[in-house]
Each structure stands twice: as C-alpha cells, then as structure tokens.
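User: Predict PrgI family protein's structure from this.
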Amino acid sequence: MREYTESMFFGLSLRQFVFSVLACGVAVGLYFLLKPYFGIETLSWMCILEAAPFAALGFIRYHGMSAEKFIWVWIKSELLMPKEVVFKAENMYYEMLTHPMKVKKEKGKRRKKSKRKKGTPEC
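Assistant:
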C-alpha cells in the first residue's frame, strides 16, 4: 500500500516515463551521431549500453530510495566519509571467570606490601 504510484503514461509513473523517453532520446541521438563511423551491430550495442543507465534511473528502487538518492548515499558513505570498523570480540563468560581471579591476585599483592612497617629497615 505504501509503494503505490499512479500510472500516468502507458502504465508507467511520471518518473519512469520521463527516464524512458530520455533513454530513447540518448539511444536515437547516439545512433545518428555515430552511424558514419561504426557498423550497425557495434552501433546497436553502443546505443543499448549508453541508454541503459538512464532507463535504470527511472525504474530502480533500493530500500525505498530512488537510484540517484542511493548513488548519493553510496558515494557519501564509501568515498566522502569512510570508516574503518574494527571488530573486537568480547567473551562475557571468560571475563566472568577470570575477573574474580584477578581481584584475588591484586588483594594478595596488597597484603604482602602492607605487612611491612614503614619504620623498619629492609635486610
């Protein structure tokens, strides 16, 4: 229900229709521009490859974001503000078992030091 878009032209939303027309325009323009230089097979593949990104911009949605918003988020997260995430494992059970032993060792060291009186010389 949230993803409802109204069909405007030929069963496409306005966004999809505009980008489809743009993709067709790029393909036709490229065809007439490069026709004297390439054969028909090579030229047809070039038209498809040049028009595909424009067509994709109109139809692709990823996690509710349009294609250009997703591209901006990706550039921002990967290029502008990259972070190195470091994983440090914490073993809660190991800490619970070793912590009382550490406390006992520290108390034992304190007791040995405190037995010596301040005024007596060491021999």
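The chain has a mean pLDDT of 80.
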